[in-house]
Design brief:
This protein has about 180 residues and is of the alpha+beta class. It has two domains: about 100 residues, Peroxidase, domain 1; about 80 residues, no CATH class. The chain has eight helices and four strands; from the N terminus they run ααααααβαβββα. Strand 1, helix 7 and strand 2 form a beta-alpha-beta unit. The longest helix is centred in the first third of the chain and has 18 residues. The chain is elongated and about 70 Å long. The termini are far apart.
Length: about 180
């Protein structure tokens, strides 16, 4: 089973419990923060995956460091330690975030542009493209990429809408090469 499939199963289980207790937003926020902490502190992840330390010692460290976290999230972290899956936390957090967004009728979108988009532009893009993927709104992350030359490229999951000058120029180049 691929790592993403494993991560998705853990995320779905955590999501089901969080949804049952009506704490999806709280768990999502805490999970994203914990994933960020572990991402920024590679030594801590190395410690949690080091076979020299017992699972009990690792769970004690997790309990102490994340004692303010929601109990179901803390129990999930301890389970990940037991199952030697702490290195999957980043993917679990991503999958959980997608599940939470989907449940709220939103989707994560990355918009590539040559400059920082204004809030009004983000709102317009969200309104326009959300309809195309049957969502109410999009949570937009703007990535500055000068190579697009102009226009925008919107990525929602594995769907890409490319309306950039660079892609139009490439399409024109291919047409000219084929016709010559």
């Amino acid at each position: 089973m691929s790592n993403y499939s494993v991560a998705k199963r853990y995320a779905e289980a955590l999501f089901a419990v969080a949804q049952e207790q009506n704490i999806v937003n709280q768990v999502n926020q805490e999970l994203q923060e914990i994933a960020q902490v572990i991402k920024e502190n590679r030594d801590f992840l190395a410690l949690l995956t080091n076979p020299k330390f017992s699972s009990e010692k690792k769970k004690e460290m997790v309990s102490e460091l994340f004692k303010e976290a929601n109990p179901i999230l803390l129990n999930t972290l301890k389970l990940l330690v037991d199952k030697k899956r702490m290195n999957e936390l980043k993917h679990i957090a991503e999958a959980f975030k997608a599940l939470a967004a989907d449940a709220q009728g939103t989707a994560e979108a990355t918009v590539y542009s040559t400059r920082e988009l204004t809030e009004e532009e983000k709102k317009d893009i969200s309104t326009s493209f959300a309809k195309l993927v049957d969502k109410e709104t999009l949570n937009i992350t703007n990535v500055i990429e000068p190579s697009v030359i102009g226009g925008v490229r919107v990525q929602i999951g594995n769907i890409i809408f490319d309306n950039t000058v660079a892609s139009k120029l490439e399409s024109l180049r291919r047409t000219l090469v084929v016709n010559n």
